[in-house]
Amino acid sequence: MQENTKTKVDMGGVSETLLITVYLRAKESARKDGIISDKLAEDWVGRMGYNFQKFDKDRLSGVGVSVRTEVFDEVASQFLKKNPNGIIVNIGAGLCTRFQRIDNGSATWFELDVKEALNLRKKFISPTPPRYGYIEKSAFDYTWLDDVSELAGRKKSKVLIVSEGVLMYFEENEVKELFRQIKAHFPQVEIITDTMPKISTKMSVKHHKSVSQTKAEFKWGLGKTSELYNWNLGIEIINEYSLFNRYPKRWGCISLLRFIPWGRRLTRIIHFRFEDNQTAKQNNE
Predict the structure, then answer these.
(1) Residues of the signal sequence (predicted)?
(2) Which end of the chain is more exposed for a tag (fewer CB within 10 A), N or C?
């Protein structure tokens, strides 16, 4: 494809990090032994005029993004099996292709992101209401919760909130308030998100080969997963995943960190829900 026919991309800040993930998914998908298959990502990257090569040296992030995608896909697929008419909200959707890859034909999906990100997304794929819609808002503009909760209540559907590669770019108090607002709006909700350890937020992003190529900045980190209980939100952990536990040969020697508690927290995904009021009451008696 000629360079002048490509979609020009000029993004900054946190939004630019979506280009890292779509590129690393595309590279992995193109491998014969790829962890994931994402043909749409391959197509979109090929159609964008952007210097993706600056991310090529970050081998470990390539593995991490791919394994993370696999885990998020599995959790979302399991949710849909249990709740075929459920609702999935993808926070910071960027150029995620999960709906196109695992949709069950009956669930309702919302891609939530800021205008800059969704404008780029619309150049490649458009929403198809009523089952597949875009919400052009920040996750911290809580009016999106009213939009979704109205539908959730009308359908009496359970909700899965997906937040992949997003929350570490915001302050802890913002993340905590986001979870509080979600709990207030959705009595039956599950959340899956990835986290990074506190030590990573204390280091400059220059130590992260891909993110250092953008203007994004790490802000929120989590120590032990149990620290979430101290937020007094009634968080109940469903499952926890360390990416190092999968494909150790692809990770190399660093995969040995999976045998150390703090090492497992370096690549962690947390799937949780909130206790209902009755359960919380019983636990407090």
Answers:
(1) none
(2) C
